[in-house]
Design a protein that fits this description.
Blueprint: E1 3-8, E2 11-17, E3 22-26, E4 33-34, E5 45-50, E6 53-58, E7 66-67, E8 70-71, E9 74-76, E10 82-85, E11 88-93, H1 95-98, H2 121-140, E12 152-156, E13 165-168, E14 172-177, E15 181-188, E16 191-198, E17 207-208, E18 211-212, E19 218-219, E20 224-228, E21 231-237
Parallel strand pairs: 3-4
Antiparallel strand pairs: 1-2, 1-11, 3-5, 5-6, 6-9, 7-8, 7-10, 10-11, 12-13, 12-21, 14-15, 15-16, 16-19, 17-18, 17-20, 20-21
């Protein structure tokens, strides 16, 4: 089970297990994690935990919530990250994530061919931030734990890996090539949807049946043809 370790000036004060879906953090006594400090808003932030994944959301606090020195609104937490609220810090510990058991763990990214050049750390960082925000939005919307009961898979229709199949087992599955174009398939209670993560430098946005996907989530149907970063793949419901 994931937990938070509260500290002040580097000295641990208390541990909190994330044993309920929503845990609030703030100065008022009614919060699950109370931090009695004027730099902390009455109800400062909340943490949403679904299965083995946790997401933090700042609740319009006065002084903000920081992670890695950056002020965040929503953020998918990673093992070892420190949440800074005022002069206090909360370290997020999730051993299940290290073991690769997270529900929002990203599946392999399908790339155009097997000889792609490695992407820069900055590109990977931006991509992970975008995917993390999508995952947090899905969690806030209640998509996790209530995904489609249908099973689906992708089959590559072009490129060096043509014919390869991949079963969709995660709530968030990324497709494409970082730095070129990335999209994601999400499982929701109403079915499967394709969303654009990074339109990138490619001449067209991701396509479904030769039609560009807008900024809205695109519902997917059995036998739809998806094209991301120039790679075509069939989407099939079993």
């Amino acid at each position: 089970m994931a937990k938070l370790i509260l500290s002040f000036d580097g000295k641990p004060l208390k541990e909190y297990e994330l044993d309920q879906e929503i845990i609030t953090i703030g100065r008022k006594p009614g919060n699950d994690i109370q931090i009695d400090n004027l730099a902390v808003s009455g109800t400062h932030a909340k943490i949403l935990t679904i299965l083995n994944d946790s997401f933090i959301e700042d609740l319009n606090s006065t002084n903000g919530t920081l992670i890695n020195g950056q002020r965040i609104t929503k953020h998918a937490l990673r093992n070892g990250e420190k949440i800074v609220i005022g002069k206090h810090a909360l370290e997020y510990i999730n051993e299940a994530e290290e073991a690769g058991e997270g529900e929002f763990e990203k599946t392999m990214i399908i790339r155009p061919d097997a000889n792609d050049q490695p992407v820069s750390s900055e590109t990977s960082k931006k991509l992970n931030q975008s995917i993390g925000k999508i995952a947090a939005d899905l969690a806030s919307a209640g998509a996790a734990g209530a995904s489609s009961q249908e099973e689906a898979y992708l089959e590559l229709l072009s490129g060096a890996n043509s014919g390869k199949r991949m079963k969709i087992t995660k709530i968030l599955t990324t497709l494409g090539k970082p730095g070129v174009q990335v999209a994601a398939i999400t499982q929701r209670p109403l079915g499967f949807f394709l969303i654009v993560v990074d339109a990138g430098s490619y001449e067209k946005r991701p396509l479904v049946n030769d039609q560009e996907v807008s900024t809205q989530a695109q519902p997917l149907k059995d036998s739809d043809i998806i094209e991301v970063a120039g790679v075509k793949m069939g989407f099939y419901i079993e």
